[in-house]
Write a structure and sequence with these properties.
The chain is α+β, with helices and mostly antiparallel strands. It has a five-stranded antiparallel sheet with strand order 4-3-2-1-5. It is rod-shaped. About 5% of the residues have low confidence.
Length: about 130
């Protein structure tokens, strides 16, 4: 940084130019970073909540429980294409998109039905990705 200040020269041009004011060099000379020890307790709580929320992204799909799989598909952002799933229950097999999960009920959009179907979470035996 000191070497730049010592080399204050006029720009070298090969064309005849009028005498102009010397350009000022404005650069950042200091910075401050926040270390992990300077953060308040509140941000650690937020990071713990963030970790718990994004914990599903770090697990393999085959290692997830049925509830984790349902939460994973139900909480996908709208701009991410939904993945077709095969839900195997005690009585029937459904192939469709998991739309929502509320009050221990899984809402499935099946292509053969005009309206979504609600299935209790306890009845679901297995969830597999379909068509991959």
């Amino acid at each position: 940084m000191d070497s730049i200040r010592e080399k204050q020269e006029l720009p070298k041009l090969y064309i005849t130019q009028p005498n102009m004011a010397e350009p000022k060099r404005t650069m950042q000379s200091q910075y401050h970073s926040v270390s992990a020890y300077d953060e308040p307790q509140q941000s650690q709580e937020i990071s713990n909540q963030y970790y718990a929320k994004n914990q599903l992204k770090n697990k393999k799909f085959n290692e997830m429980t049925i509830k984790e799989k349902v939460m994973y598909f139900a909480s996908m952002p709208f701009h991410v294409p939904k993945v077709k799933c095969e839900l195997i229950t005690e009585r029937k097999k459904y192939i469709g998109l998991i739309e929502d999960y509320q009050n221990d009920m899984v809402v499935i959009k099946v292509a053969s039905k005009p309206r979504p179907i609600s299935v209790p979470l306890e009845q679901i035996k297995e969830i597999n990705m379909f068509g991959l």
